[in-house]
Structures are given as structure tokens and as C-alpha cells.
Amino acid sequence: MNGWNGKILEIDLTTQSHKSYPLDMEMARQFIGGRGLGTRLLWDMVGPEVDPLSPENVLIFTNGPLTGTGYQTSNRFSVTTKSPLTGTVLDANSGGFWGMQFKRTGYDVMIVRGKAEKPVWIEIKNGDVTFHDASELWGMRVFALTEKLGQDNNKRNVLCIGPAGENLSRMAAIMNDRERAAARGGPGAVMGSKNLKAIVVEGRERPVIEDKERFKFMLYETRKLLAASPLTSQALPEFGTVVLMNIMNNIGALATRNHQQTQFEGAEAISGEELTEKYLVKNAACWACPIGCTRISKTEKVEGEGPEFESTWAFGAQCGIDDLPAIIEANMLCNDLGLDTISVGSTIACAMELSEKGFMDSDLRFGRADQLAPVIEAIAARKDIGSDLADGSLRLATKYNHPELSMSAKGMEMPAYDPRGLQGQGLLYATSNRGGCHMRGNMVGLEVLGLPKLIDRFQVQGKSSFVILNQNSNAAIDSLVVCKFTNMGVADEYFARVLSAVTGIQYATTDMIKVGERVWNLERLYNNREGFTAKDDTLPPRLLTEAPVDGPSKGWVSNLEPMLKEYYRTRGWDENGVPTQKKLIELGLAELV
Amino acid sequence: MPTVKLYANLRKLAGTKELSITGPTLGAVVNVLVRQNPALDGVVLENGQIRPHVVITVNGHNAVDLDASVTEQDVIAIFPPIAGG
Predict the structure, then answer these.
(1) Engineered SS bond to A553: which of A252, A256, A545, B18, CB 3.0-4.6 Å?
(2) Contact B53 A241 (CB under 8 A)
(3) In A, which residues are within 8 Å of B52 by CB distance?
(4) Cα–Cα distance between A83 and A27 in angstroms, integer?
């Protein structure tokens, strides 16, 4: 079987030793790579007795059979671990160049376990592993460290944590290639708990492709498909992801001031149109990506990548702030400190509401752009008010006796789309295996943008089937691993053909969806084993009981309960949300439980 | 007159963010918009229908029926194909 390198690298930081061994190719066939393979390996390695920030937790870095082949967007990698933010299974993936370079070192998987006695960084050069003392690097920020360790996009790539990871913020990201992030769920804190500052990769190996002629034709065809789609050839390159700001506001589904409203009067001032007109320097792209959705933005103080839609929303509408330069700077500061922008923005918004209502003694207030940077610095340093906020909104709101003011699902802060105006999106957040997240599936395409076809966003009955298909498809794409934006020009069935050409295994479209379903069910089993139950498949009370008083979503709450019942039934789970034996047999997972 | 709001590259093509256009139905308003702004021809409508991936909302609700009546107070928003996340 080609595409995969067929090798796992395992690093023990406690003993500063490493070994390599063959990848179980039957496991690879069933879970492919990325998120799927990472989850399968985590299942065997990290049980419910393991604290996420203890040496017994592992970081599993995975690429996939397409990674580094040159197929469009085949630059991504995944990191799988037990989340210190949620306690659930966590997969976070990231683009840029590091994933491609990691594949070139000759490994499909890198498992990092244990804890170094003193800070270290690891260099992997053509398969050789070297441990370096990182005592003098501890405390360094991401941009300076990335440069110091010799980042060179196509040759040598740096992955690291910033001060937030060192200080074990449960919102800490793992950063790569300076400004790309495996951000959600706190993987940076797991890396910090291991005293691991950075992993630098350099490699020369190229993946072997089974059917080169067929693959070459598919590269050509994919280029044409992406060029023909107005989404991937015009919308994303021209305005980036922030272009969603105005439409979400227009339909009344833009969470505002910690989800107290669903429309923001300052949306236009922080829109993609405004960003493009006043602050865009140029576009940029990840390795082998013809789309180029990345913005390079510039204010009087900073210049760099971003911001994306979710980051702009989190520091903007969610905090009631319409100062776009301040938002750009907050985004870049999070990148430099190694923080997840969605969780940080929403946690600040939660603190603003707690403070305004007198539940918390601080001067944080909605609309105060000047407060963003100092609070973000404090979170990364875990000092002053930052010590309260560093572990996310749920722990913060619980400390001040108002957990209902955390806008999170399973402890992870939700993104911009307000479920009261998007019923399917609410079901998606509530059932997401890593918590409130739009990357496990996204119903905005179907419920707002008509991609591929418009469905009624307020409809409840029948919604679960769309959500499930979306979740399974996303799990499959995350296991290849490619960027989900390719899916806007290239249909699911095409990925099966590319995977077949690269590996020599004949994958049908249904096989791909089955892989996604298998991954989703295994993640669910993992969470069940951790003690999560159907009662955790929920949303903050505000979204279930407080209807917006104006705007296009006026009068609506998330009608979650009937959707959940339908969801469990359609998934082949019992009424308690547990996969049935029949379903597990069908997916080849029965022997695991 | 209903207010028509334009977004993303439609603003550049029409040279404005917002217009007021008279018409009894959504289709009539959009047709006048295109006639007044030839650069939008083939961008918003295709064969008399809303072009695939173009989103039109009336007062924040997705519109699919060009024959639907519109009133003077209505706000019509038109978005070209957009995506993100």
C-alpha cells in the first residue's frame, strides 16, 4: 500500500529516548490518517484514569496518505490528545507547511509521551531524532522562536508553543510555521505540561504514489474544479473567511455580547469588505494550495496573517467591539503567545458579562477595545485577571457561581453562529465530540449559503440526517488530511478516487463516508468511556430558553430536544446516546468495547 | 421604495453599497438593479433565476421566490457566492 510511509515514531520525553516501528496497515486502511488514525491510537493509549496535563497523556501527530503528495491542500496535519479544556477526545488540525515536512521525515505518526525534566526541543532530520536543551528558549514568544529555530517554508519547519502553553492555559494552541494553529481544546497546554517547547522537522523522503498517471490527471482535474468554483476561485481569495460577517449579521445569527443578542450594530465595521479595503496587504497560501484564503493584514502597529472570520467575531461582535485594527492586533497577539482566538475572545466576553452584572469584580466592559491586549497578555502569563480567565469561560463562570454564562458546549467555547437562528448548527454544537466547534461539521452552508442546496434554517424535523452526513464527511476529510475548503469545489466522491490512486486500495464514496462514521463513533465511545453521557449533549441555557427580542431570529430558541432524539435514532444509537452493538459491528468497532 | 444592500464584490461592480429601487416583486427589483448596473448582468441572475450560490435575503430571511411581493419597507440584501468558517 502506497501513500503512507508505514512508520510510527515514538518519543519518550521522560527518558529522552525514541523508537520507530511499523504502522498497522489494517488500522491505516480503516482510519486512513489524521484525525481518524490519531483517535484510534489514542483509544489504546489514554484511558479515563489519565489527567490531560499529566505525563501519561500523549500527543499524537499524524499526517495522511495524501499529505505531501502535492495534491491540492495536502499540507495539513493533526494532533490528537485528551483535551485539558473539555476532558474529551481532542483532534486539532493545522495547515501551513509543517505537516508536509513532517511527512518528508519518513513517518506517518509521531507519538510524544512522558515529561522532560527540563525544557527541551526536538529536531527530526531525515528520520534522526535529536533532543536539545530549551532552557534558554522557555518564555520566548512564537514569532521570535520560529525565526530563531530556522523556519524555512519548504525546507525546515517549526512547530512550537508560546508562553500560554508553558503556563498551561487550557486555551493554549500549538503553533506551526509562525502563524498557523492547532488551536482548539488546549493542545498547547499538553505540550507545555511535557516541558516540550518545539518540534522542528526537516526531511527528504517523498511519498510513493501507486498510480502516478491517474494521480497526475486528478491534480489537473482538481485544479480545474477549484478554478471553476466561484467559492474557491473568487470568494475565498478575494475576501477571505471574514466575508461571512455581514451575512451572519443580516440573518440574525451573529452571536453578540456573549450571545445576549444575535445582531451586532458594528458588523459592517469589522466585515471582510472593510478588512479588504483598509487593512489587506496581500493574500497568502499554505503549501500546495491554489485557493489562498489567508489574509496578510497591516495596522499601524502590526503586520501578519489573519484575522479569520471566527477570530474577528470573537474579539469583535462577541465582545461588542467594532475597532478592526484592535481586533487584528488581538488576533496577532494570540498567535504570538500561542492562544486559541475563539476561546480567548469568548472567555473575555464571558468575563465582560460577569463584570457588568456585578458577579465578578473587574473593570472589563463590552465595547472596550483598549482592554483586549492587556487581558490577552495576562491570560498567557496566567497573572492578575488572567489567572481567572486562563482556563476558559466555563471554569471562570463556575468560579463566580454563574456557569450558565459560559457560551460553551462540553466546555469548549462555541464559534460565531448563533444556534437560535440556525437549528441544525445548534444540534451540531451539542453533539460535537470535542465540544462547541464548527469544524466537526458546519450547517451554515446548507442553512444559509445554499451549499450545495438551501434548507430551512428554522426547521427542526429531519435536520439530524443533514447534520450526521456533514459530521461524517468532515471526519473523513480530516482523516485524509486535506483542507475542508477543497470540498467547496471538489465533491466527496472525488476524494475517494484520489485516495485510491495514491494508495492502490479501491475506496468507493461510501467507504469514505463509512470511515467518517467509524471515526465519529469511536470518538463517541471515547467520550462515553470518559464518563460523558447524553446529558452533556446540550447547549447553554440562554440558547435554549432566551429568544432574541428583535431581528430575523426573533422569538426563536434552539429546539434541541426533538432534534437530539431524532439524531440518536438516525445514528443507530440508543436513547441514551450510546452506539448500539449492531452499529459497532457494522463499523468494525465491536471488538474495542 | 425597498432598500437594496450589496455585499462583497457586488459593491465594486455596482459602485455603491446601497440603493433604493421600486418594484412590486423581488424579481422586478433585481431586474431593475441589473439594468441600472450592467456590470451585475450574469452575476446575480442567470436565465432569469437567482444564480447558484448567490444569496438574496428579504429582511434577513433567505428568498428563493422571485415572484414574492416586496413592500417599501423591505430590505433586500444580495450576496455573491461567499464561503468561510
Answers:
(1) A252
(2) no
(3) 450
(4) 23
Choose among A235, A241, A484: nearest Cβ to B81: A235
Q: Which residues of chain A have pLDDT under 50?
A: none
Q: Provide the Cα torsion A487, A289, A242, A189; round to 10°.
A: 90
For A437-453, what is the HEC assignment? Answer: CCCCCCCHHHHHHCCCC
Q: Which three cell numbers stand for residue A210?
A: 501507486
Residue A487 sits at the chain B interface (C-beta within 8 Å): no
pLDDT digits (tens, 9 = 90+) for A539-586: 999 999 999 999 999 999 999 999 999 999 999 999 999 999 999 999
Identify all chain A residues contacting B60, using CB atoms and an 8 Å cutoff: 250-252, 551-553
- Average pLDDT of every residue of chain A: 97
Alpha helices in A392-491 (DSSP H): 393-399, 423-431, 444, 463-480
**pLDDT value at position A126?**
86
Question: Is A484 an 8 Å CB contact of chain B?
Answer: yes
Q: Which residue of A has its CA nearest to B79?
A: A247
Query: Which chain A residue shows the shortest CA-CA distance from B61?
Result: A251
Helix (H, G, I), strand (E, B) or coil at A257: coil
**Angle at which helices A34-45 and A509-529 pack, to 10 degrees?**
30
ipTM: 0.98
Q: Taking CB atoms and an 8 Å limit, are B60 and A438 in contact across chains? A: no
* pTM to 2 decimal places: 0.98
Of A243, A250, A484, the CB nearest to B57: A250
In which residue are the cell numbers 520560529 written?
A: A146
Distance CA A332, CA A306 (A): 7
Q: Position A283: which residue type?
A: N
Q: Chain A residues with CB inside 8 Å of B80's CB? A: 230, 234-235
Residue with cell 424535523: A461
Distances (CA, A) of A474 to A17, A242, A435, A443: 35, 21, 15, 11
SS3 label, residue A110:
strand
Cβ <8 Å between B83 and A272: no
Taking each continuous run of H as one helix and of E as one strand, the counts in chain B are 2, 7
